[in-house]
Amino acid sequence: MVTAAQQTASSPDAALTFPKGFLWGSATASYQVEGAAAEDGRTPSIWDTYARTPGRVRNGDTGDTATDHYHRRREDVALMAELGLGAYRFSLAWPRIQPTGRGPAVQKGLDFYRRLVDDLLDKGIQPVATLYHWDLPQELEDAGGWPERATAERFAEYAALAADALGDRVKTWTTLNEPWCSAFLGYGSGVHAPGRTDPVAALRAAHHLNLGHGLAVQALRDRLSADARCSVTLNIHQVRPLTADDADTDAVRRIDALANRVFTGPMLQGAYPEDLLKDTTELTDWSFVRDGDLKQIHQPLDFLGVNYYTPTVVSATDGSGTHTSDGHGRSAHSPWPGADKVAFHQPPGETTAMGWAVDPTGLYDLLRRLAADFPRLPLYITENGAAFDDYADPSGQVNDPARIAYVHGHLAAVHRAIVDGADVRGYFLWSLLDNFEWAHGYSKRFGAVYVDYPTGTRIPKASARWYAEVVRSGVLPGA
């Protein structure tokens, strides 16, 4: 008898059927879509401040209006229902719920999320809430931000407020989205908010993000029902050597520690990697890690969220080069503390509008590694997608065959990983809507739905219709 796996292996162009119960969704982030930056008690986040600083964001764009999701949520939920999504991953805006990062919640802010969740549930769409997608209240940054322990403590208090308000209807929670970006792009290279460039502050921020995660999981568990699920989303880097030389292999080890194991070590194994501590010893003695911190961080999780877009290629160097080819934005300051003798290289092949290489094998390899390292931890792809130079043609249609090809290739990689034993249970396309793409402003379009920014008009792209059929059938058509 020929199994489905054998058919897949022997017929790479055949249609691929995903497991029954596989969760299909899409995702957004609060600052990128909501707008209403000063309504109903919301105060500035670090991204409001950063975007309003001249020279930080392309064209001086801000998230003040974004895609106006705050006022158009019903229209957007109707689009999700039209696409047949089983789940919607969104983030809560901390300064909308707790404007100063301290004290009681603002009910008008919570009411927006209550209404959003109710709308989703009415359409049979599972709400997946992320507590933190980078919009730290500016008052907490003014008090020191993530490099300070107090921010982790405030984060746990905020998590408790969110759980108390929404926990009766939201059953799936994520603490942090891509803490690597928060720590190392925000406090190391400065290409993300708050725009600081201090390698020690970046390492301190990484630790306190870890601590905040652990404290938040405990706060959620204390308040949620037994059937609720807690997770974290990491942008695990698939790091590859430029050559087979031992020096390049060691460069991979060094970047893997800074990109990945700085989070998976304490969160999933209860310890920081010894090589990470050694690599950064000239910068810090890590005395900011206090007794008991690792126990607080190492909390049981129900699954791990994985964000993937492109692989990372590195080599050893003499330290005279730059870090401008790591795919994370140009800066005179490195987001890689203690890795001055590592060079980054553009992976081969076609690229997206972000300049990122299109390489689904990186996702396959990453999932296989995570399955081997953490065999009892289910995985969800919480972000995967691509930016292209989309436009509406004279008939009002948006055709984006390159995005369809990108998603097709990456879904095929996910299916292959499942066949080969990885416990992958869902996929969230990034992003539902074109939106504010951080330092790129509105110049990069990741959405399955095109947004005409002057009018706010939504136009589902060809990729949205294609994805809707995959969601409906659970089958990836042949290439």
From TrEMBL:
Organism: Streptomyces pratens
Top-level class of the enzyme under EC nomenclature: hydrolase
Sequence ranges of Basic and acidic residues compositional bias: 58-67
SUPFAM superfamilies per record: (Trans)glycosidases
Molecular-function annotations in GO: beta-glucosidase activity
Alphabetically ordered keywords of this record: Carbohydrate metabolism, Cellulose degradation, Glycosidase, Hydrolase, Polysaccharide degradation
Catalytic residue list: E383
Domain of life of the source: Bacteria
Pfam families per the UniProt record, alphabetical: Glyco_hydro_1 (PF00232)
Protein name from the UniProt record: Beta-glucosidase
Enzyme Commission number(s): 3.2.1.21
Span list, region Disordered: 45-67
Similarity annotation: Belongs to the glycosyl hydrolase 1 family.
